[in-house]
Amino acid sequence: MHYLNISFSHKNSTMEIREKLSYSDQYHLNACLTKLHNHEAINEVMLISTCNRMEVFASCNDVRSATEHVFAMLSEHSEISVDELEGRADVFDDSSAIHHLFAVASSLDSIVVGETQIAGQIKDAFRYAGDHNFGGKKLARAVHHAFKCAAKVRNVTDISSKPVSIASVAVSLLKSVLKDIDGKKALIIGVGEMSEITAKHLLSSGADVYVMNRTKEHADGFAEANGTKVLDYSELPTAVNEFEILFTATSAPKAIITDEIIKPCDFDRYWFDMALPRDISCHKDERINLYVIDDLKNIVDENMSAREDSARMAHGIVGRSTVEFFELLDTLDVEPIIKEIYSKAFEAANAESDRVINSGYIPKEYSDQVRKMGEQVIKRFLHDMTYKMRNNSDESKSDTMAGAMLSSMKKHTCEAPHGHACQFFVKGKINEKK
C-alpha cells in the first residue's frame, strides 16, 4: 500500500489553471471521485478543492499507474494537456505525501501561513469521501494524524495566535487603500465561511455591511447571526453600481458580475473577488479597483517575516510527526502477528498442560499452577523476539520479518489493520476496496 498526493496550488499554478481544475458542484466532484476510485490501482481517494489548491490524495497499490490515471482524469476535466499538468504539479508519494498532507493541514503551505480555514476544508473533503464510500481506513488513519499534527503545531507555536485568513487579508488591503472605512457601505455576496469572516472584520471597522445571496433564507439567517443588513439578489445589477465596497465569495460555476451589468460611476469602487471560479469578469475600468486571490500575496509576504520562527518550529513538528506516523504503521503491521504468535503459543502450552495432567503425571489440583507456569515460560521466551519486532526501525527488515512469521503459520487469522478510525469520520462506512 502506498500514499499518493498530486498537488496544484498557488505555488505552482496560476489562478486560471486552478479555475479549470476546480469542481464547482457536487455532481462533477462525485463523478471525478467515482472514476478515480474505480481504477484498479487506487484503493481510496479524496479531493481537496479550494480557492488556493486542488489536490488528489489517495492510497494506491501502484504509484505509477495511479499517477498516470489521475493526470489523465484531470486533463479530461480541465482540457489542459497531460504534459502541462505534469510540468506544473507537485507529486508526492509515501512519506513525502504524508509530510505534505501534514504541512497543508497545519497551514504551512497556505498563502497565509497560519490561517485556520484549511483544516475545515480538509475535514469537509475527508467527510465527503467517507460519506460516499471513496475513503476508508487508510485515508482515515492519515487524516486523523494530520489533524493531530495540526493541533500540535497550534498548541506549541504561536503561528495561529492571531488567525489570518484570505478574508481578513482582503479587508486589511481595503483599509490600506481607503485608510478609513468607518461608516462606508459594503456589500458581501455569498454566505459561506469566507463571507462570515469578511463581515466580522468589516463590522469591527465600523462599516455598514449588507449581504445578498441567491437563496433569500440563507441571507436572512446570515444577517441575523452576524448583524448585517440584507439585499435581495435581484438587486445585484443595481447594487454593483451603487456600492463603493464589494466582496464576493460564492460557489457559482461562472461569473455573476460581468460587463453587461456594470455601468460607469463617478466614484472609485473597490471590489474583492475571493471565489474560485471567479465571480467577477470585467474589462479594465480606471475607477474599478479589482483584487483577486493572487493579489493578496503582497500582504502575505509582509506577514511571513513575523512568522518565520514559528514556521520553522512548525516544520520541525511536521517532520517528527511524519516519522512517528510511519513508525506507527510498522507497529500496526507487526502487532496482530505478535498477538497471533502468543495465541498459538498459549494454545500449545495449555494443550501440553492438559496432556500431562490427564495422564496423571501431575495431580489435578495443581492444574491452574501448571497452566500459569506454561504461559509464563512462553512469555519469557517470546519477550526479546517480540520486542525486536516492535522496535525494528528498518521498514524493509520489518516487512521481511512480518512476512516470514506469517508464512510460518499454517492457519493464521490475523490481518494487519489498516489504521485507526478518524474522529472526523462521522457518517460514511469505512470502505475497503479489495
UniProtKB/TrEMBL annotation:
Tetrapyrrole biosynthesis glutamyl-tRNA reductase dimerisation domain: residues covered: 314-404
Quinate/shikimate 5-dehydrogenase/glutamyl-tRNA reductase domain ranges (all copies)? 173-299
Q: Which reaction does it catalyse?
A: (S)-4-amino-5-oxopentanoate + tRNA(Glu) + NADP(+) = L-glutamyl-tRNA(Glu) + NADPH + H(+)
Task: Give the pathway.
Answer: Porphyrin-containing compound metabolism; protoporphyrin-IX biosynthesis; 5-aminolevulinate from L-glutamyl-tRNA(Glu): step 1/2
Name the catalytic site residues.
51
* Record-listed NADP(+) binding positions: 190-195
Domain Glutamyl-tRNA reductase N-terminal stretches: 6-157
Q: Annotated Gene Ontology MF terms? A: glutamyl-tRNA reductase activity; NADP binding
Q: What else is known?
A: During catalysis, the active site Cys acts as a nucleophile attacking the alpha-carbonyl group of tRNA-bound glutamate with the formation of a thioester intermediate between enzyme and glutamate, and the concomitant release of tRNA(Glu). The thioester intermediate is finally reduced by direct hydride transfer from NADPH, to form the product GSA.
Which family does the UniProt entry place this protein in? Answer: Belongs to the glutamyl-tRNA reductase family.
* Binding partners and assembly: Homodimer.
Spell out the protein name for this chain: Glutamyl-tRNA reductase
Q: Origin organism of this chain?
A: Candidatus Sulfurimonas baltica
